Amino acid sequence: MASSRNVKQPPGAGMYDPPSKLQSNTLKQTFCGYFSYLEGELQARDVVIATMKAEKAKQLLYQAKYGRFGLGDPFSALQRDSDNLKDNSFDESAIKSMYDNQLAQLENLIATQRKAQLKMREQLSAAEKRYHKVCNELEDEKRKHAQDTAQGDDVTYMLEKERERLRQES
Fold this sequence. Notes:
By secondary structure, the chain is mainly alpha-helical. It has a domain at 20-89. The chain has four helices and no strands. The chain has helices at residues 2-6, 19-65, 74-86, 92-169. It is rod-shaped, with a radius of gyration of 51 Å.
């Protein structure tokens, strides 16, 4: 047995680690596990925050594009303004260009509607002229008919008189 004591063994071979060293390794592994778990949670939170910001920006752009901002509602305006103060990525120039684009589209729509209104006025005027012309023609026809009827009555009256005269002669 004495010979086995003289043989050098690598450190830690055949021997147990002291309990304090085992405890510190276990704590290190536990803390590393907790830290990696917490780091994953923080990354997931950052992803959710970025997603929510993108969603909110998309919603604001959609509302700006289609004019669905609650401009009449002061509470939504205050909420929108406070959200914009917190959000540093708010692109005011993009929103302004979108509003300018909306304004240009609105002016284009107004011009189109004015052209349509002018065409409708012209068509209405032409229809009124045709109506007055037809009314005048109908009045002329009425007068002619009344004249013909009156003339026909005169002829009938004369024929009646002639018949009576012939009866008296016979």
